[in-house]
Amino acid sequence: MSRRAERTLAALLLLAGAAPLFAGRFLPFLDMPQHLGLANALARYGDPSTGFARYYELDRAVDPYWGYYALVWVLSHAVPLELASKLVLAAWAISLPLSVGFALRCLGRDWRWAVFALPLVWHENLFFGFTTFLVSMPLFFVAVGLFARELSAERSRRGRAALLGVVAAAVFLSHVQTYLLLGLAAVALALVEGRGPRLALARARAFLPSLALFLAWFLPNFAGAGHPVPLAHTARYRSFGSLGDLGAVFEPKAETLARAPERIWGMYADGSGLALGAGYLLLLALSAALAGWPDSDTAAEGLVPGREGGFRAALRARRGELLAVLSLACYLLLPAQVAGQWYLNARFLIFAALLAPAFLAARARGGRRLLLAGAAALALVSDANAARKVAAFQREVEGFASLVERMSPGGRALGLVFDRASAAGIRLPVFVHFASYYQALRGGDVGFSFVGLPSIPLRYRAGAQAPHPGEWAPQDFRWESMGPRYDYFLLRGVPVGDAARLAEHAERVGEGGGFTLYRRRDVSRGEASSP
Q1: Helical H runs in 44-130?
Q2: CA-to-CA separations, 452 to 59, 174, 241, 329, in angstroms, rounded
Q3: Buried (b) or exposed (e) across 35-61, using 16+ Cβ within 10 A?
Q4: Contact by Cβ (8 Å): 20, 385
Q5: What confidence score (pLDDT) does residue 236 get?
Q6: Does residue 462 or residue 178 have the better pLDDT?
Q7: Kind of pairing, strands 445-446 and 412-417?
Q8: Cα 198 to chain center, whole Å?
Q9: By the 8 A CB rule, do 51 and 528 touch?
Q10: Residues 121-131: pLDDT tens digits?
């Protein structure tokens, strides 16, 4: 195959990975509505019709979630907010395999093995809606590749070092977990390179700007008394608390191991994701058997250590595998929860999976191209399956957009989700944060919001936050203490407790997408109450 044909095929495969994002308006991603609502609040903060400035104040401090929000804000000047968010995710879906290919090449592997990253684009972190974390992933691989080149080069290049500094800062400003993994990877690469601490420190100076940003965020949030294990996000939740009071929660190691496949491919209720995962692992194992050792081309390029090189030289030739093992160790050994922040160790697993092609030391040439074809075919099956699930989800939520349009802008809405399950084949409770689409499409505030987290660049104004029952406990809703603070109620499923008596205090406006909308009786049509 010619180089031109190879690139054309690669482009088509990359576009196929992003295509399911446009199979429908609403994406079945759990946290997506929250992040979309906050992106709207940042983009339209000064618009009086949204009411954002009445509820929130901007946090001018350094926050590690700016990556996604900044990209959406920039694009929202040219296209509608929802499309801006999808374009950011599409860029992520395309750049993830490309960045893995770049890292593989810098680590001494054939970049073509990055085709194994294509079936991993649609994985569980995406369906959890961890948008800021997703943005950090391709940046991580670019930073790893740049630093590997800096360490092995005879002379540091000013342009490459400057680019590494910018990319490392962007990693932190997208997600702090990924930045910490990048720090661990950088230390490992410097130790393996073995050219002395002076050279390693000189090449690592590119990380100083990002380290300064990290410390500017870390010290206020981990160096004093705070609210380390909050029951809810509140205006008082200003820090994570001291390092000695983080409330780390570890899960049993047997559970960590058993749930590993689910945490990459467990997003579909019909088990199709796990079936694709089984096929992926079988193909990867076959590839390791056929391409796991360097061939003559690799040896000719000096990537196979000689006998005189010893253990360090062997490690240097296996830098990519070492990083994959470190990522897997983070998944196995780190806590599942710290300071109320959940699903921590599980996020490292996807990095181990994406780095797994580093175990393929031989070039993807000759008969080994059949392995590339197998991974490409698996990716297309994964993309088609995701597109079908997104399309089915549109049928399930049909009418929800028109329901939200009947809500006046700039008010406050409370989601009471008693039925979290999706009938469109999605295993995750994707409706928990769906009330945040009111904030994304109409402005205002929602009953449970990520506002107030130390990683979010928004805070509630004094007295502006309304009490709420929590997104996982709608049965705790009490009309007397909570109801009068809300203009609208989005109810899903069979309610219990005070939620079952909403009709006594609110009028039913309509139904759509499995939700029933209520408006508080003393709220006039076309207007919303003040905070």
Answers
A1: 52-55, 66-75, 81-106, 124-127
A2: 10, 17, 14, 32
A3: bbbbbbbbbbeeeeebbbeebbbeeee
A4: no
A5: 43
A6: 178
A7: parallel
A8: 36
A9: yes
A10: 999 999 999 99
**Residues belonging to the chain:** 531
Among the ranges given (107-111, 339-343, 475-479), the one the predictor scored with the smallest mean pLDDT: 339-343
Nearest to 329 by CA among 355, 362, 300, 292: 355
Cβ neighbours, 10 Å, residue 368: 18
Residue type, position 144, single letter: V
For residue 66, give the nearest of 213, 224, 281, 276 by alpha carbon: 213
* Residue 459, strand partner residues: 57
Which tokens sit at 274?
């796990």
Please give the Cα distance from 317 to 230 (Å, whole number): 46
SS3 state of residue 437: helix
Asked whether the predicted pLDDT for residue 241 surpasses 70, the reply is no
Determine the Cα–Cα distance for residues 527 and 500; give it in Å rounded to an integer.
25
For 239, other C-beta atoms within 10 Å of its C-beta total: 17
Give the pair of three-digit tokens for residue 225. Answer: 């008394």
Task: Read off the pLDDT band of 229 (50, 70, 90).
Answer: very low
Query: Pick from 459, 467, 416, 449: which is nearest to 33 by CA?
Result: 449
As given in the structure block, the two tokens for residue 302 are 């000096």
500: CB partners within 8 A, 6+ apart: none
> CA–CA separation, 37 vs 441, rounded Å?
8
Q: How far apart are CA 86 and CA 95, in angstroms?
A: 14
Place of tokens 């001291």: 242
Q: How far apart are CA 69 and CA 37, in angstroms?
A: 10
Q: Is the pLDDT of residue 452 over 80?
A: yes
Residue 195: pLDDT band with limits 50, 70, 90: confident
Tokens of 200: 């390693």
End-to-end CA distance of the chain, in Å? Answer: 64
User: Exposed, middle or buried, 245 (CB in 10 Å: 0-12/13-18/19+)?
Assistant: middle
Element (DSSP H or E) covering residue 337: strand 337-338
